[in-house]
Amino acid sequence: MDNFKSGFVSIIGRTNVGKSTLINSLVGEKVAATVDKCQTTRTAIKAIVNRKNSQIIFIDTPGIHKPKTKLGEIMNETAWGTIPDSDITLFIIEATSEKIGKGDKLILDKIKEKNKKTILVINKIDLIEKEKLLNLIKIYSEEYEFKAIIPISASKGENLDKILDEIEKNLPYGPAYYDIEEYTDQTARQLVEEIIREKALKLLDEEVPHGILVEVEKMNLRKTTKGQDIYDVEAVIYVLRNSHKGIVIGKNGSMLKKIGTYARQDIERMLQTKANLKIWVKVKENWQENNNILKRFKNE
Q1: What is the pLDDT of residues 95-104, one digit of tens each?
Q2: Rounded Cα distance, 20 and 60, in Å
Q3: Domain span at 225
Q4: Spatial separation of the C-alpha atoms in residues 196 and 266, rounded to whole Å
């Protein structure tokens, strides 16, 4: 195993550039919530890709944004904190940009400051013409000496192998950090929370989603009377306001039922067994400013 390589790759970019879609595509499993709304990822999630000669540990980070709450500040700190600790930084931008915007410049300045090995990934190339892409590559290549600039479409799975090949080329030699059967450092409970939150984010109105916190209170495996395995899962969706509680529950419980049905399907797929899912909705005002709750989002 002398020629084996391993290391950590931090994925960084503005909100909504497709980081979580990319990481799920690279790993081949759902490890991060993917929703077409800002600030979907809240913590640094590790996802593991095992190859013949390497183990790549991706760290999916919250999108860089202008924070309005303590939670927002912690999310930004989490993202910035992964750069110095990683072997390689994967900087994701959107192909639809025509110049380096404020958010991307902020990230680029941080990368320059840390002087880390960085691969620039230009996502959503299916949305633009080739000339625009070439112009964007020229603009960025004049700003920093990237190890590579790779245009991709994460949603269509285009050029993803090139990312893995380029990362492997730049990784240090070393043993695997995780068992080759593992694809994330998250517990089953955390993955279930992510799944429920993703379904809620996808189905709910714009005003509600970012005030949502999901906690799994109980998760037990038992046998049915027929001797089959089944997980009993009890979870709570916390919202900021009473009016939000009504929206999450919906008329005659219709919205909550929909969230639960879609979440249960994904949970059963992930756990590879049947699940009995019960979800409650409770109000927890100002939880985004509550230090005890926010501890769980910190990148220790």
Answers
A1: 998 889 888 8
A2: 7
A3: 188-297
A4: 9
